[in-house]
């Protein structure tokens, strides 16, 4: 089951809230999935199209809660490509008129004909805005699996609808982006916090929980990765330093012989040659008397300087 289907199933099973919110949620659904057809004079048919049985049931419950129906809605099941099914819920002319008028989406013009219009009413209550967003998400929303990325999008029929959705999102503090894809207008949210906030607002508590778990897991993994990378960088630096030390010691050995070195340095040089992977602390502990890390570091710098002098001496090229 995709994350989108899980969220829609959860939203679909929520209890219906106050009457004001039922209207708002229907408004969101109408924004998202409506198939509006004006056939003949004043004939209007409002339809909801969805692939989710949970959303279909929700639409029916909302429709029944919105007032006495003039007639039973028609229900159709369509087989689409690749075995996908689509449910279509088609409302009668009378019920379509009633619902659209309630949404402020029908206006009578001077000739006495009903025309579609953008809903005039501004939602003042937060409960209704949340219900509206819930309806719109169920109708045309998509959420990516948070394991892969944080991304929510609504595929709207046209630009004015996308604008309206964006405005409602802004009213609850979510900053959505607008774009277009194959003739549809897209509204998108891409930030992890915003996606979690949207789920919370719509009432998808289970989805919020699972998303928070995933986010915690992710940040743990990122921290662990950073630690590993950091260890690897340290190890790399340490090995590179050891290689430089060994090169210097070999140069001295070649040019002058290690016995040329003062006894303390000579034993450190021999120790390093025998243990190329050892850390400076590990080398220091094996010296007598033992040396601290910084003590060993200091001696190594002396070795490298001496190697430079030895090479200079031998090649007789003071400019090198
Ligand atoms: Zn409300």
Write structural notes for this entry:
This protein is an alpha+beta fold and 320 residues long. The chain has two domains: 3-203, Endonuclease I-creI (Roll), CATH 3.10.28; 230-315, no CATH class. 56% of the residues lie in helices and 15% in strands. The chain is built from eleven helices and ten strands. The protein has helices at residues 3-12, 19-33, 53-65, 93-102, 126-140, 159-171, 192-202, 205-255, 263-274, 280-285, 293-315, and strands at 34-38, 44-50, 74-79, 85-90, 106-108, 114-116, 141-143, 152-156, 177-181, 184-189. A four-stranded antiparallel beta sheet has the order 1-2-4-3. Helix 2 packs parallel to helix 5 (126-140) and helix 8 (205-255) crosses helix 11. The protein starts with a helix and ends in a 5-residue tail after the last helix. Residues 316-320 have low confidence and may be disordered. Zinc ion (ZN) is lined by residues 18, 20-21, 24, 125, 127-128, 131.
């Amino acid at each position: 089951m995709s994350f989108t289907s899980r969220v829609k199933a959860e939203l679909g099973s929520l209890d219906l809230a106050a009457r004001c919110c039922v209207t708002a949620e229907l408004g969101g659904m109408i924004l998202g999935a409506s198939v509006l057809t004006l056939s003949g004079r004043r004939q209007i048919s409002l339809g909801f199209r969805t692939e989710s049985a949970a959303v279909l049931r929700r639409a029916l419950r909302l429709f029944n809660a919105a007032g006495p129906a003039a007639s039973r809605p028609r229900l159709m099941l369509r087989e689409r490509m690749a075995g996908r099914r689509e449910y279509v819920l088609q409302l009668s002319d009378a019920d379509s008129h009633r619902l659209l008028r309630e949404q402020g989406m029908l206006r009578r013009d001077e000739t006495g004909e009903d025309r579609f219009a953008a809903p005039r009413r501004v939602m003042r209550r937060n409960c209704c805005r949340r219900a509206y967003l819930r309806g719109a998400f169920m109708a045309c929303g998509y959420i990516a699996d948070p394991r892969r990325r944080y991304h929510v999008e609504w595929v709207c029929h046209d630009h004015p609808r996308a604008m309206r959705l964006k405005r409602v999102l802004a009213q609850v503090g979510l900053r959505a982006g607008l774009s277009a894809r194959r003739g549809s207008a897209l509204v998108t949210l891409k930030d992890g916090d915003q996606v979690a906030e949207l789920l919370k607002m719509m009432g998808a508590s289970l989805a919020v929980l699972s998303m928070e778990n995933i986010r915690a897991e992710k940040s743990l993994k990122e921290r662990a990765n950073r630690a590993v990378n950091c260890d690897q960088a340290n190890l790399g630096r340490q090995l590179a330093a050891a290689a430089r030390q060994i090169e210097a010691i070999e140069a001295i050995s070649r040019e002058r012989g290690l016995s040329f070195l003062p006894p303390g340095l000579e034993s450190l040089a021999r120790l390093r040659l025998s243990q190329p992977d050892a850390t400076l602390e590990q080398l220091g502990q094996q010296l007598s008397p033992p040396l601290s890390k910084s003590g060993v570091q200091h001696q190594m710098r002396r070795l490298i300087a001496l190697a430079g002098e030895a090479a200079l001496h031998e090649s007789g090229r003071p400019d090198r």
